[in-house]
């Protein structure tokens, strides 16, 4: 469906960052800034799908050449 353009290290970093940001949403229920942590959905989704729309637009790939 989509061409893979997110490499292994990039993918792991995105998933970790997404999970941490989403965890902050639940850890601090009374914080005024907690809704900003929902942006963690974006790196989590792009990491799980191994496809970044911005990378596609810019023609970037962090995959090794044989996996791209």
Sum up the structure in keywords.
elongated, 68 residues
Description:
With 68 residues, this protein is mainly alpha-helical. The chain has one domain (8-58). The protein has 3 helices and no strands. It has helices spanning 8-27, 41-49, 53-58. Helix 1 (8-27) packs antiparallel against helix 2 (41-49). The two termini are 13 Å apart.
Compose a concise summary of this entry.
With 68 residues, the chain is mainly α.
Provide the β-strand percentage band: under 5%
CA-to-CA gap between the ends? 13 Å
Radius of gyration: 14 Å
State the secondary-structure class.
mainly alpha
Secondary-structure element pattern, one letter each: HHH
List the helices and strands and how they pair.
Blueprint: H1 8-27, H2 41-49, H3 53-58
């Amino acid at each position: 469906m989509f061409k893979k353009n997110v490499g292994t290290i990039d993918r792991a970093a995105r998933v970790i960052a997404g999970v941490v940001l989403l965890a902050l949403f639940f850890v601090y229920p009374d914080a005024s800034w907690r809704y900003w942590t929902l942006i963690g959905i974006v790196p989590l989704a792009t990491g799980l799908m191994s496809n970044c729309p911005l990378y596609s637009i810019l023609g970037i790939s962090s995959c090794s050449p044989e996996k791209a």
